[in-house]
Amino acid sequence: MPRLIGLTPNQSAFLHMITVSEIGRPLMAVSDEGYNVIVGSTVGRPYLFRSYATHPMRFNPAVKSDAAGAYQVMGRYWAYYKKYLQLLDFSPASQDRIAICLINECKAMPAIEAGDIEKAIHLTRSRWASFPGAGYGQNEHAMDFLIDAYQEAYGRAAA
Fold first, then answer.
1. For residue 3, is it within any domain?
2. Which contiguous run of DSSP H or E holds residue 117?
3. Which residues span the domain enclosing 91?
4. Catalytic pick from 22, 33, 105, 152?
5. Is 22 a catalytic residue?
């Protein structure tokens, strides 16, 4: 579950849903809830980083990416968000702040707070390759899978 203090229940549930989508429950269980996972990890071969001092910047040539953390933040964006959000490290709370910033950039926070999760997923699909319609050529999850992950974290969906 997210570690940033002050999130609303829907924000917390949406962040949990992103992690389930990007990392997967089994890998979350063998890591620090996904916060220390490097792209390309599997349950059988988890690639984990030890220090939260900074983004690990470990390029995985098999997937052509250096994404890391619960929200699979790309290394090339780390310097920008570190400065923009005045982050001291790549800790779980800092990763949560980056994810919230990405959501806000996509103008999806009103949909999250209203419980319109399908709309929020649609609006943020450019940020997370595992979302339906993201178009990055990676495994995209079905909308029902994501909504289930959102609701298991006690997110409130619109009626």
1. no
2. helix 117-124
3. 9-152
4. 22
5. yes
Residue 60, beta-bridge partner list: 65
Residue 65 maps to a domain: yes
CB of 20 closer than 8 Å to CB of 139: no
pLDDT above 70 (res 77): yes
Q: Kindly report, residue by residue over 92-109, the tens digit of the pLDDT.
A: 999 999 999 999 999 999
Closest C-alpha to 94, from 133, 52, 135: 52
pLDDT digits (tens, 9 = 90+) for 130-140: 999 999 888 99
Asked if the model's pLDDT at residue 159 lies above 70, the reply is no
Residues contacting residue 70 through CB under 8 Å, at least 6 positions apart: 15, 18, 19, 22, 23, 33, 34, 35, 37, 92, 95, 96, 99
